[in-house]
Amino acid sequence: MIQAVVFDLDGLLLDSENFWQQAEYQIFSSLGVPLKPEDTAQTLGWRCDNVVQHWYQRFAWQGPTQAEVATLIIEQVINMIISKGKLMPGALEALKLCQSLRLPMALATSSNHRMMLATLKHFELLPFFQATCSAEFLPLAKPHPQVYLNAAAALGVAPQYCLALEDSVTGLIAAKAARMRCIAVPDSAHQRAPGYALADHVLASLTELTADHLQ
Asked: I want to staple 80 with a disulfide (CB 3.0 to 4.6 A). Which of 7, 19, 29, 169 is the partner?
């Protein structure tokens, strides 16, 4: 029986994956990294410092450090979220549904802690969550399960009684490694990716989430 729900942020509640892809493409291109826009899909759901390390190992650049590049990307994404960001279809309704069922909720994200809080405050989502967990300062981000384990611990609910909602295969692997049930809500461009077979359910949108999924 589900006793708590743990949400991802980017790409699930927040329509932000394109912002990450735009920022990464623009900043890496300015450093001479021969990146095509579609290449950014390779690191979907990764923590920003891991993305930067991934491309630096392949195309080492001169000038700013990896940490400085990660900060540039995060700042650009925050600015885009505040100026033109929007919630994913069904996101607010999903949160209200869990709230109506008296299910405690946590957020488990690989995103930077400051970006997470800025987003939640901007969209007035903080009151929905009893715990917010960022993997920013963890040794390993998703697909490692630690951020999900931290979320379950913060709620005081054993992981096997938690339901995770994720949009990426990376996050799905993390949730399942934490022994949680998981509903995947992939972007339409990635719905046929074989990794989503790990999910307990796959939805086309959060608008499809019902009370039956939360039993």
From this structure: 19
